[in-house]
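Thread: Modeling a multi-component assembly for a lab meeting

Hi all, long-time lurker, first post. My supervisor asked me to bring a structural picture of a complex we are working on to next week's group meeting, and I have zero experience with this. I have the sequence lines for every component (824 residues in total). Could someone generate the structure of the whole assembly? Inputs are pasted exactly as I received them:
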Amino acid sequence: MDLLGFLFDGFSLPFMARAAAVLAALSLVAGVVGVLVNLRGLEFISDGLTHAVFPGIAVGFVWGGREGLFLGAMVAALVAAAALTLIARSAVPTDAAIAVVFTAMFSIGIIVVSRETNYAGQLQQLLFGRLLTISPAEVVQTIVICGVALLAVTLTAKEQVFRAFDNTGFDAAGYRPLLLDLLLNGAIALVVVTASSAVGTLLVLGLLIVPGAVARLVTQRLWLLFPVAAVFSGVAAWLGLAFGFAASVDLGIDLPSGATVVLTLVSGYFVALLARLAVDRVRAGRPRSEVAS
Amino acid sequence: MGFFEQALLAAVVIGALSGLVGALVVLRRRTFFAQALTHATFPGAVGAAVLGLSIPLGAAVASVAIVGIMALIGRVGRQGSQVASGIVLTAGFALGVLVQALNPTLPVQVDSFLVGSILTVTNGDVLLAAGVLVVAVSVVVFLGKEILFSTFDVDGFRAAGYREWPIELLSLALITATVVTAMPAVGAILAIALIAAPAAAARLLASRATQIVVAAPLIGSASGVIGVLLSRALDVPAGPAIALTAATFFLLALGMRRFGASRIRLRA
Amino acid sequence: MSSNPSPVRPADGPALELSAASFSYGREPVLDGVTFALQPGEAVAVIGPNGSGKSTLLKGVLGLIPRVGGTARVLGEATAPAGAVGYVPQTEGLDPQFPVTLEQVVMMGRYRALGWLRLPSRIDREAVERALDAVGMTHRAKSRFGELSGGQQKRGLMARAVVSGPRLLLLDEPFNGLDQENRDALIGSLERLKGRGVAVLVSTHDLELARAVCEKVLLLSGTQVAFGPRNEVLTLDNVQRTFRDVGVEMDEHTVVIPGHEGH
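Re: Modeling a multi-component assembly
Sure thing. I ran the full set together rather than chain by chain. Output:
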């Protein structure tokens, strides 16, 4: 299969096109939100949110099937985001407290699902996603929710960056950090919910943190970080999807699409990491060689 | 011994170990690292299952690789330890999912690796946990004061002429070993609850490190046992039951601290 | 949006006025009994050893730490209007790898006045240029903030603090670790600001620097020891009481050592 074929063939199929649309929307939002996650060091909180959203997803799924899932998940996500925000700012700080809360919520989710007859299968689906069986309605839902999250973040982008850089100065300027944190954590929660049905609860974190980390490796210019993250995320998702399709059609191997996308993202990350190490080494080596010659 | 009694024994031993090493994790602020470890050993476990090797071994091998990768990432100036933990967590997990999907006929039900299956722990698992517990206790007894010093004030520790890296290495090794042995009981996803919650609860209640290091394993074992009993009584999976019990201890400790502090005058 | 402060008439009240104020992080107050007034165009040095409450006072004035007793009026109000108080914190705690330029950091000082949804305009950019010029850092505007030296970062944060034209400026140990060039630049900037009617409150444990800029001195040691014109307050007795356990150099000829008279 030639390169162009590899990149474009599969997408004429409706289910692939839907998967691509969902991933495109997710990549864009996750890329932008992910930069803020990186600048604020919120990787751990984001991981917590992916776990804390799970009971909402589970309850929604159990009561409403696929359609109910979304509403349940949204409610749980926003509640969890608010709770985590408050805990993170309270006097009992510590990662340990956050870890305990989100694991407890995750456990509740597991118990809810365990009451269902097809426990193992449904758990599998919820945890790992079903990118290739997304319905048209879900595509629309995803795009709308992603749009809301993107709006919330871009409208407050400059304040978010200020807070990320210097939260003492931010406080001193008279802002209320709580509002901003709720907004960002809420946006993260929305991304988690929509991404969960695509790549599964456990792999959402990849979409959130890898693009931002890659952008930091690529550039030091603040406002470039956002487009770089979004573009990288989109391209990697596309490649991952195409790769999974090609493997399935040409090699007969059935790769789980969520995992494939995340692994493509991570491979891109390591390429960027090694490139950055190489560039830094070359730059550090230059003065010496000039002196020697 | 019947499988239920075996499960209770496992709960006591694994709970104690998780609590003890959890104290180390909490005091040294390595919770995200431990969390990343629990998820990232997943591919090692799956790989071991595919190759027919022992799962703890696969998980252990994966752990070593993971710590190496995290160290590498952490070295690059613009990536911190949070990024390293996050990347490793998600990459490892995705890899595990992939390998699992490629081998649908695994002899071991890998989902149980994710949420635990304490009722099917083997003698080997319990013995391994007991062994690690003995090592952990010895480390705490013989090296406790050095660990405490370096945890509390790493610069002062170095200034006093000690080297930091042996302590760091030791605690990493213990955390890794604990994560690997806790998995059969509560699974990869919930292991952090058993590691963090008892220790966090102990920390809220006790003011001295020696007290924390004694209280945490006790709370850990209690969480394990009560969780297993509840799981049988309420007919829910044991892993989540144990995790929720541990979390409840933590919330209780939180409540006691909040309400108790207003009445108790803490003596210096 | 004006970037120069409106001329301050002497008839305007004090920029800052505290009376028996006390501040606390938790249950016990860490600083109490603070009573003083700071006039526009004046500079007061807050002097004391480490842990005496200097940072606490500044943060308390900003509202970052709760005031648990007494009164405080900032620019005549209970809480200062946004953008009217500038703050130059100690630089510790800022991520040296953070991808921002000096220019962008100074621009952050305009955000509050700009508001939530608006983007910086030409007026804001010009204000940033002027602020950078005032601290002598125009040549490094496009450098990454973390690449600047400690002294340069301090001057950058100073530019950020003044870019919105505040009427009260608080500086927390601004002279720590600065070389001579940076100290002189900072002192020059402070003199210019005072000339424009800005009130300055600067915390330091360096008596020589306090002498260079400030007319009045506030001595702290967990509580207020003394306040008033520099020469009246900086007596051997007061300094000994403030710096109880720490030796300190009062001037070229006098060093105060705990338990001894100065010689």
